[in-house]
């Protein structure tokens, strides 16, 4: 009998506590912070590809050209930590029509150029030393982390403004934020909104502008829940 009473008492207490817990009314909104800026850096992946019938000679030719490319990069005052080998490959090619075996050698180098004004002169020099591929171009900003921080603050302000609009329409007010989550799609430095295709300058050709960096967009999206009063 005592056990039955104890179970009944515990059950009633739990029901009473459940009735006392009331859900907190909230308004859930999303906010976006967006900042545009002209990039001041560019990451370029360049390559030297050599072909021939003798694998040893093909690799040797490729190494000689890469040596010249590295010296050219250093000549422009680019710090050693701003360039590195990205890929090295030696591969066979078989021509079934001519029934002939050939070989290809490829080396690529990633270069971070922190002074865009040097781009055309650098690419002209690199082309003259043997670069015959441009595999990738990514524009960046040296201020990316600060811009990202500023975009976060704008995103939160945007979310709060939306919440206030909803609350005002209901004749209520918003209180403190009870949760916030970052809904941004990663934090890799974004690509430019637009840029022109680049043509490598011919050796000896007059200097010309071939780079249009456009603008970068730093975008942050957040989800925020505010108490509805």
Task: Indicate the topology.
Layout: H1 2-20, E1 26-37, E2 41-52, H2 55-75, E3 83-95, E4 100-113, H3 119-129, E5 133-140, H4 144-169, E6 174-182, E7 216-228
Helix pairs in contact: 2-3
Tell me about this structure.
By secondary structure, the chain is an alpha+beta fold. The chain contains four helices and seven strands, in the order αββαββαβαββ. The protein has helices at 2-20, 55-75, 119-129, 144-169; strands at residues 26-37, 41-52, 83-95, 100-113, 133-140, 174-182, 216-228. The strands form two sheets. The protein has a four-stranded antiparallel β-sheet. A three-stranded antiparallel β-sheet has the order 1-7-6. A hairpin with a 4-residue loop joins β3 and β4. α2 (55-75) runs antiparallel to α3. The chain starts with a helix and ends with a strand. The relative contact order is 0.24.
Helical proportion, percent range:
25-40%
Widest β-sheet, arrangement of strands: 3-4-2-5
Cα separation of the termini: 47 Å
Instruction: Classify the oligomer.
Output: single chain
Uncertain spans, ≥5 residues at pLDDT below 50? 4-9, 190-206
What is the number of helices? 4
Estimate the strand proportion. Answer: 35-45%
Biggest sheet layout: 4 strands, antiparallel
Computed structural class? alpha+beta
What is the residue-averaged pLDDT? 84
Give the CA-based shape. Answer: elongated
Query: Whole-number radius of gyration?
Result: 30 Å
Compute the number of strand runs.
7
Tell me the series of helices and strands, N- to C-terminal: HEEHEEHEHEE
């Amino acid at each position: 009998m005592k056990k039955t009473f104890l179970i009944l008492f515990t059950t009633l207490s739990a029901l009473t506590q459940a009735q006392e817990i009331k859900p907190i009314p909230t308004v859930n909104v999303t906010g976006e912070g967006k900042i545009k800026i002209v990039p001041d850096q560019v990451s370029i992946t360049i390559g030297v590809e050599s072909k021939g019938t003798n694998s040893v000679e093909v690799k040797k030719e490729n190494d000689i050209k890469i040596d010249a490319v590295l010296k050219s990069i250093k000549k422009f005052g680019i710090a050693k930590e701003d360039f590195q080998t990205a890929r090295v490959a030696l591969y066979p090619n078989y021509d079934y029509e001519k029934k002939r075996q050939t070989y290809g050698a490829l080396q690529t180098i990633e270069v971070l150029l922190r002074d865009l004004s040097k781009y055309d002169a650098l690419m002209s020099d690199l082309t003259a030393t043997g670069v015959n591929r441009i595999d990738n171009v990514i524009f960046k900003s040296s201020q990316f982390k600060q811009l990202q921080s500023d975009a976060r603050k704008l995103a939160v302000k945007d979310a709060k403004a939306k919440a206030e609009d909803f609350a005002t329409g209901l004749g209520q007010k918003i209180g403190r934020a009870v949760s916030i989550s970052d809904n941004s799609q990663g934090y890799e430095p974004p690509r430019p909104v637009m840029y022109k295709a680049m043509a490598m300058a011919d050796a000896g050709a007059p200097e010309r502008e071939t780079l249009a960096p456009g603008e970068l967009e730093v975008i942050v999206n957040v989800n925020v829940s505010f108490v509805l009063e």
